[in-house]
Amino acid sequence: SSLSSGINAEYGRMWKTQCKDALEKFRFLVELDCNQILKIFHAEIALGLLGEFVTVFNGNYHPERAEAIGNILHTLTKCGRFDLSLQFLSQKERESLSSLLDSLSQDWDSSNTDWLKSIYIKV
Description:
Elements: H1 2-17, H2 22-30, H3 34-40, H4 49-59, H5 66-76, H6 82-87, H7 91-107, H8 110-120
Helix pairs in contact: 2-4, 3-5, 4-7, 7-8
C-alpha cells in the first residue's frame, strides 16, 4: 500500500540522515517494537537495509540486547521481499550475520536461534 511505502521511505530517510554512526543506528533499530517493524517493512525491506541492520547489530552487540535483536531478526523474516534482501547480502554482511547468530546462540534461547539460523543461513 502507499501508506506503508511512505512509512518505509520515511524510515529510510531517517536512518540515513538522523543516525550519524552505527551506535545511533543500533539505538534507532532496537527502539522499534516488532509491530512497528512489520508496519514499516510490510511491503518490502529496501535493498541493502537488511545487510546494514545485520552489520549494525553485530558491531554493537551486547548480551543484554540479545532478545531484542533476536526478535527483530525474527520479525524481519515476515517482511516483504525478505528472501530477496537475504540473497543480496555481501560476503562481509554474511560474515557479520554468522557472527551475530553465533553471539545470539550463546545469549538467547537456543531453539529460537536455531530457527533463525535455518532461515538466515541457507546451506
